[in-house]
Amino acid sequence: MLFFLGISGCIDEEIENKTDGFDLNIAYGQNVFNGFYPWVDFINQQTLSINSNIFNSLVEFGEGYQIIPTLAESWNNPNDLTWRFFLRKDVKFHNGDIFSADDVKYSIELIKVDKNNSLYSYLTMVKEVIIVNDFTVDIVTLEPYPVLLNKLVYIFMVSKQNHEEISNGNPIGTGAYRFSEYLKDNYLVLERFEGYWGKKSEFQKVTFKFFNNY
User: Fold this and answer.
1) pLDDT greater than 80 at residue 172
2) Which residue has the higher pLDDT, 3 or 156?
3) By CB count within 10 A, which of 115, 163, 174, 197 is most buried?
């Protein structure tokens, strides 16, 4: 089911025309879902693939594993220790919050203070995150760190305002699909997010069904 990773951008035009308005049902032979970011087991590829449709990172892997823009439109290096990211200005979270540099700083620092988080080791070289303006953020490293972009692929962005106010609520991301319904060990339902900043999927609803007896 790794096919579903980034499904909103991976369906060719011919398939899109045939599936417009349809729902998608996906069955797993066992319960492989370990919960929503940032409380997931990073090693679990199935969990990561599901959550990647709810959340976005600053960058992601394209074909051939080259780094391509996602929530960051572009970036540069003002010096050997600084990565400056210029963020998209048309991005909304599923609850209507506007994505900004505050959310980037909060999301990264949320992981850095939690050594039990499976992604903690990915950010140990990050010294600090500096907000330049609402849509520009600097990530400063302890030493030159050319693989930072590869690490940031796995760092999903959460809403600072929502996460601070609602610690145990439903997951809120900027991804192509928004959380709809979840019954642990049984099923998960995602619905297409009509306010998605990128290319919208032709599937209106996706249901994951977990089977534990196979």
Assistant:
1) yes
2) 156
3) 174
